[in-house]
Write a structure and sequence with these properties.
The complex is a heterodimer. By secondary structure, chain A is of the alpha+beta class. Chain A has two domains: about 230 residues, Rossmann fold; about 120 residues, Nucleic acid-binding proteins (OB fold (Dihydrolipoamide Acetyltransferase, E2P), Beta Barrel), CATH 2.40.50.140. Helix content of chain A is about 20%, strand content about 35%. Chain A is built from eight helices and 20 strands. Chain A has a six-stranded mixed β-sheet, sandwiched between helices. In chain A, strands 13-12-11-14-20 form a five-stranded antiparallel β-sheet, with no helix packed on it. Chain A has a five-stranded antiparallel β-sheet with strand order 15-19-16-17-18, with no helix packed on it. The longest helix of chain A has 18 residues. Chain B is about 75% helix and about 0% strand. Chain B has a two-stranded antiparallel ribbon. In chain B, helix 3 packs across helix 14, helix 4 packs antiparallel against helix 11 and helix 11 packs antiparallel against helix 14. Chain B is globular and about 70 Å long. Classes of the chains: A alpha+beta, B mainly alpha.
């Protein structure tokens, strides 16, 4: 497998004064399920469109499988796209939609028929050949768009929020299906989404983008457990931020003075050496424990529950403590909204679960 | 009683539809159907003398029409001129609409309004201004002569078929712009991108996607221009001379100075039928043609 199948070298795209993509460089592996994740306006779609050839970069170049595709128009690139709104041609039926991209590949009639048949069975759309876009459901349209792109056997499949328009149940189903499909056919997928859960559950690697820049690029696990800055930590999942100042370094650990709580020795995952620099400590709600009794965890605070939200598989508690000004979010699978009648509770934190972030 | 009517009205959609339609229905009946019926019946009468009409039924006027070479050739010429006008208008209006629909991001409405600006003056005034432009001593001829490019004025510009075609094209362009713009603006740009993504060049994408999807607008524009221009008589009367005369000028003469109402009525009916047939053929073939393309 080629580790630098797609090379994005110093790509920038400016629209007037807006830097949609700002000097981005990274590589995508062959056969990888790669996601571009970020809030709307972060440049992820522009980056995808640059890969597809719908936009040309202001600076930088793009290499695909060793050859420079920076200046190639979309019809000359070995990439295909699944559009956000699917872009099914409304005036021709499903079969013709899927055949559409094959005419220029110089295939024989028999090959075309076989490929269309195969791809329609791959996306489970046999029997829908004669239908028109207006006669299909959202999920079926999505499959047509997928089939239409895959039938050309592109080197890279680009997907622009393809699941955004589907309802939750169908979306979960399609996530699994897309993932299975990708493993089966082995084509490199570049998947754009604003849904962090979607990106984390499907991808081999995720690039989190904000303001035209890559904030962090790593495996979903790494991204969740070891976010490199406040943006990523905040965007991926939910977390509590506590202000802190670094004190003295101690091997792999560093002493940190957390505001209102005092000094603690925690893992120095940022490799901070200097003293007295402002940092942020992040604690995920599910790593904390909420209980009626005091615990022997590293930090245990008495608090009062201000608000709860019951989510079925777990309950979120919004807890006010004497020590910390901010409301702390804790989630629990064990207790629910009826467990604490008087609102009095104890929340406990393990130092291992605190991760250090640079203050930006 | 009133209560019964009210509850009937509330539940009946046809009742609502007809009451909303009634002003238009009354107007159409009074101003269109009755005159049309009168015209149709006149076409079956005979003009005996200048003031006298024989009201017995005959189809002789229709036979007369096809026996007069002049009338048949004028009918053919009317259709031909209209076709050329329609074609030229489409050819000029389509790129403009394409540009506004896909490349103008802000103030699309302003562009459309500016394009229709010339049409805020009266039709007659515009015809006359073309007279100033195309005439023997008009803008085009005098500037070409002054520039030394011509020694004598171009005579085919004025009082000719060309003059009629130019003026009608300009006069009806605005009516083509709107249906074309609407149908192009409705096309989702991602469809065009998708076609490019699937390996088609710009030109192929236009043939396979943009053109078929803008077909409703094209048919609309064709009908909107073709139907009124076939029957136009102001422009040919003012700018056509003998060369640019159309059937409608003859019909006007039959109802006026020639005073042969039945033959005029028969000619008008034949023109009506011709327009209907041509319209049907055009929209049918355009549809078939695009089906074959895609």
């Amino acid at each position: 497998m080629n580790d630098s199948f797609i090379q994005i070298n110093g790509i920038s795209k400016h629209f007037g004064n807006v830097k949609a993509v700002d000097d981005v460089s990274f590589q995508i592996k062959e056969g990888e399920f790669f996601s571009l994740l970020g809030p709307s306006g972060c440049g992820k779609t522009t980056l995808l469109r640059l890969l597809a050839g719908f936009e040309y970069p202001t600076s930088g170049n793009l290499l695909l499988d060793g050859s420079d595709i920076t200046a190639l128009p979309p019809d000359k690139r070995p990439t295909n796209m699944v559009f956000q709104n699917y872009a099914i041609f409304p005036h021709i039926n499903v079969e013709k939609n899927v055949q559409f991209g094959l005419r220029k590949l110089g295939l024989t009639n028999d090959e075309i028929i076989k490929r269309v048949k195969d791809v329609l069975s791959l996306v489970k759309l046999e029997g829908y050949e004669e239908r028109y876009s207006s006669q299909l459901s959202g999920g079926q349209r999505q499959r047509v768009a997928l089939a239409r792109a895959l039938v050309r056997q592109p080197k890279v499949l680009l997907l622009d929020e393809p699941l955004g328009a589907l309802d939750k149940k169908l979306r979960d189903e399609m996530q699994l299906e897309l993932r299975t499909l990708q493993k089966e056919i082995g084509i490199t997928f570049v998947f754009v989404t604003h849904d962090q859960q979607e990106a984390i559950s499907m991808s081999d690697r995720v690039a989190v983008m904000s303001e035209g820049k890559i904030q962090q690029m790593s495996s979903p696990n790494e991204l969740y457990k070891n976010p490199q800055n406040i943006f990523v930590s905040d965007f991926i999942g939910e977390t509590n931020f506590l202000k802190a100042k670094t004190e003295s370094k101690d091997g792999e650990y560093i002493n940190v003075n957390i505001e209102d709580l005092g000094s603690f020795k925690i893992k120095n995952n940022l490799n901070i050496s200097e003293n007295a620099s402002d940092v942020i400590c992040s604690v995920r709600p599910e790593t904390m424990m909420i209980d009626k009794e005091k615990s022997d965890w590293d930090i245990c605070l008495e608090g009062k529950i201000k608000q709860t939200s019951y989510l079925g598989e777990m309950t979120k508690f919004y807890v006010e403590t004497k020590e910390i000004e901010k409301i702390i979010t804790v989630s629990s699978q064990y207790f629910d909204n009826q467990s604490f009648q008087d609102g009095k509770c104890f929340i406990s934190i393990n130092l291992n679960d605190i991760s250090l972030l640079n203050k930006k | 009683m009133l209560q019964v009517w009210k509850s009937f009205y509330a539940r009946s959609d046809p009742a609502k539809a007809y009451s909303l339609l009634s002003p238009a229905l009354i107007l159409v009946t009074l101003a269109m159907l009755i005159p049309l019926g009168l015209m149709l019946s006149f076409s079956f009468f005979t003009q005996v003398s200048f003031t006298e009409i024989d009201y017995s039924f005959t189809v002789q006027r229709y036979i007369d029409f096809f026996q007069k070479n002049l009338l048949v050739s004028l009918l053919i010429k009317s259709v031909k001129i209209s076709f050329i006008v329609t074609f030229v208008t489409l050819l000029t209006a389509y790129p403009v609409c394409y540009y506004i629909a896909f490349y103008v991001k802000k103030n699309k409405m302003l562009w459309l309004v500016l394009l229709t600006l010339p049409f805020w003056t009266s039709y007659l005034l515009r015809v006359f201004s073309w007279k100033i432009i195309l005439g023997t001593k008009g803008v085009i001829n005098s500037s070409l002569i002054n520039a030394g490019l011509l020694s004598e004025p171009l005579t085919f510009l004025m009082y000719s078929e060309t003059a009629v075609i130019i003026t009608l094209t300009h006069a009806w362009a605005a009516f083509a712009l709107l249906p074309l713009y609407v149908s192009l603006d409705k096309i989702d740009f991602s469809l065009i991108e998708a076609a490019r993504d699937l390996g088609l060049s710009r030109l192929e994408t236009f043939w396979k996607i943009t053109l078929p999807l803008s077909l409703p607008g094209i048919i609309g524009a064709i009908l909107i221009i073709f139907i009124p221009t076939v029957g136009d008589y102001v422009t040919p009367a003012l700018l056509g001379g003998t060369d640019g005369r159309m059937l409608s000028n003859m019909i006007q003469a039959y109802f006026g100075k020639v005073n042969n109402l039945p033959l005029g009525a028969a000619s008008a009916t034949i023109m009506l039928i011709t327009v209907a047939i041509v319209t049907m053929i055009v929209s049918y073939t355009t549809k078939k043609l695009t089906q074959r393309i895609s």
